[in-house]
Write the structure tokens for this entry.
Amino acid sequence: MNPNCWQLEGQLARLALPGLTAVVDAARPAEGLTSVALRDRASQGASLLGVSASAFSNPANSLAEWHVRGHDLFAVYESEQPDAVRLDIRWNVDFPAHGDSRLVQIDLLISIRTDQLGWRHAIYVDSCLPDSRAFQLVDPERGRFEPALDLDCAIGSCLLFCAKEGWCYAELVRPTDPCRATLTAAGDASSGIHLRRQLFPSAALEKGVILRTRIRALFFQHEADLKLLARGYKDFVTADMPLE
């Protein structure tokens, strides 16, 4: 892999891989990956893995760190009193094993900590895909997926989206991670699908405690291999969380 897959231009980070390009704006972390294109097939209006927190009304003014190390892009946001909270976001890029039909893998790692007692604020991860269809994994052993729409529950651990451009995108979370997923149509039928995950929905963050979670995104250049995706999900949920 190109060791310089992330290129910083001020508060913009451009991801440039042989089959995938995208942009992350540190001033707008809620938009996540934008200008997404696979094999030069752009998905107009797509925004993936956007991170927002109610404690940061103006992320551009709260940005404390913004740098690249290896295949990782890091953003750190710090609020002042009375919230006194630190939000760490890391986008890690990796290619799966040779012969795997997944084009590229991006892990979104989020951690949050505070100096306050009983701090409680909403943290969300949003992905919007125009002109797409959504499916959820219902049987990991057989690799069986079913259509998913208007999902409003504590599941949604493995969701697959098929874009009209011919590529597919999957988001994976561990079922043990505190996360509530809501999947809805984004506007009219042609506007696509909006996936929102509320992180740590019932947790009050105590002073000195760090809450961490990881979401894995998989990009397929063509139709997804459903059995392969199911196996990848099983591997993901049993893998240890990175220490950093």
